[in-house]
Every structure is written in C-alpha cells, then in structure tokens.
Design a protein that fits this description.
The protein is mostly helical. The protein is built from 12 helices and no strands. Helix 1 packs antiparallel against helix 11, helix 2 packs antiparallel against helix 3 and helix 5 packs antiparallel against helix 6.
C-alpha cells in the first residue's frame, strides 16, 4: 500500500517554488545582480510562509486523520477507516493532478525557452552534492524523531496504565508543531536559512531531553510540547534550503528523496526503538534515540552551514 501513495509533499513543494518564482519573474528583470537579490528575498519572504502552510496542513491531517479513521471503523465497519483513507488519497490525487495551471513546466520546455537555471553540477550528480546530502540527513533524522516518539510515547503510556492516552499525547506534539509552524510562517526570521537550520536542530536536540525527565503521562504531555514546536520550522527551513541548492530541473526529484529519507527514518526507528523499549531501558531508552540522532545532525548542520549559505542553484 505504501508504495502506491503519491508523493504529494514533493509535488506540492515543487509547485510552490515554480509558482512563486514565476510570479517573481513577471515583476521584471533588472540585471543579473538584481535577479539574484530578488531570488534570495523570494526564498526567505515567499517560500517560508508557503512551506509553513504545507507543514501546518500535514499537522492538521495528523490530528484529524486518525480520529476520522477510528470513527469510521467503530461506527460503520472495521475496514471503513482504511477505505476512507484510500478514497481521500485517490480523490485528492485526481484533484491535485487536475490543477494544471500550477504545475511547473517540464525541464526540456523551460530549457528551450531559456528560463531554466544552469545546473551547478552535472545532472547525474546533482542529487549527491555535499549540500543536498546534508539536507537528506536532516530529513532522515526527522524521520527517526517521528518514529522513535511514536513508539516511545506508546510504551510510556502503557507502562503507566494509560494506553488510551497515547494518541492524545502524540496529538499534543502535533498540535505544538502546528502552532510552531504558524508562528514561524508569520515571524519570517531575517537570518539566512543556513543559519536557522542548525539553530532549530540544536533547539530540537535540547528539547528532546525533556521526555527523558517525565515521570507521568501529564508530565510527558508537557515535555512533548517544546520538541513538537520545533518540528514544523525545521521542515520549513530544510525545504527552503532544498529549493535553494537544487537546480529546478531536479527539484521534484530532490523533494521526493527528502520525503523518502524521512519515511525511511520513521520505519527504521520504529523497528529499532520497538526492540529497545522492550528491554531494560524501557521507554526512556526509546526517547534517547532522537536525542542522540538530533544532536549528531545539529553538529553536522553547524559544520555545513557555510557551504549551505553560499550555495545557490543558479
């Protein structure tokens, strides 16, 4: 089933980039230097709220989706939740595909029209540049965070005889992420995204220490608010940087890779942490995994911030 789900996130992110860049191009050309300056402002002032909206939409889906699935399964039929999810994915996919006006032009057509940015690296290696590899690791780390938290929260709730509260606890983190995305999209920090990314990752790593200190479900709920608040901003900044370092001819492919890296992180973490929480360390051993992974990723982002700050795909 997972292999058949379309990459809506990657396709939508690529459309936002093309749509905003097209609008920017219609404002006129005033020389190469001005175009580069406008591209920088476009990255920070236009893409940030657009990608924040994407992150917020995902959080809303994570909050509402499970509730709808449970209601459908309990009120109608045990398989109704799965059927509802399939219908929504198929319906949304056809509706998305019908939006031809927002679809980016094929790379060959843009190249023929002279609008395609010149790739910074050979086409067969553009996805494996140092800058993109760093962003790929960030997406993988976020996936590990999601997968570890899901399993660890469930294990923690089960140990404290509050299994029914696991969904609510994880929902609190999603709600905090939603609010964090709203605040970040509205605030629009003035520092470069390459500086924001290691700062946010450092915040996430420090905040991930809090669940280790929780002694009860309500304490865990409070402890999940801070790391949750940093999730959406991290996704937004990472997406802005992907758009910045990649050539437009490979942008959709790049976003697909980052989404796939996140999904891989979720899968690997869920399997690994599942074994850890069954051991003597329990849920705390599971909570330690995202702390360690995010700390290492923050160090990587700090080391690579100079290259990311100077990277432009055109």
């Amino acid at each position: 089933m997972g292999a058949t789900v379309p990459q809506f996130g990657a396709l939508s992110a690529a459309r936002w980039s093309a749509l905003l860049q097209g609008r920017q191009g219609r404002q006129g050309r005033q020389g190469r230097h001005d175009r580069h300056n406008r591209h920088d402002r476009h990255d920070r002032a236009e893409l940030t709220p657009a990608f924040a909206l994407e992150a917020i939409s995902n959080d809303v889906a994570f909050l509402i989706g499970p509730t709808l699935a449970v209601l459908a399964a309990t009120q109608w039929h045990p398989a109704a939740g799965t059927v509802l999810a399939g219908v929504l994915v198929a319906g949304a996919g056809f509706a998305f595909a019908a939006l031809r006006g927002t679809a980016p032009a094929p790379a060959r057509r843009e190249a023929a029209a002279g609008r395609l940015r010149t790739p910074r690296t050979p086409q067969n290696g553009v996805l494996w540049s140092r800058n993109f590899s760093t962003l790929l690791v960030v997406s993988l780390a976020l996936g590990v965070f999601f997968g570890s938290m899901q399993v660890s929260v469930s294990a923690f709730a089960d140990v404290h005889q509050a299994s029914s509260a696991a969904g609510s606890l994880y929902g609190l983190m999603s709600a905090a992420s939603l609010l964090g995305g709203l605040a970040y999209g509205r605030y629009r920090p003035h520092s470069p995204p390459a500086v924001q990314l290691p700062l946010i990752l450092t915040f996430l790593a420090c905040a991930s220490l809090l669940p280790l200190l929780a002694g009860s479900p309500w304490q865990l709920g409070l402890a999940l608010l801070l790391p949750g608040a940093g999730v959406a901003p991290c996704i937004v900044v990472s997406s802005v940087l992907v758009e910045s370092v990649m050539d437009r001819s490979a942008l959709t492919q790049a976003f697909t890779w980052t989404n796939s890296a996140s999904a891989a992180g979720i899968a690997v973490a869920a399997a690994t942490v599942g074994r850890l929480v069954d051991g003597p360390g329990g849920a705390r051993a599971g909570f330690a995994v995202p702390l360690l992974v995010l700390t290492a990723t923050a160090v990587l982002a700090w080391c690579g911030r100079g290259a990311l700050a100077g990277a432009r795909a055109g």
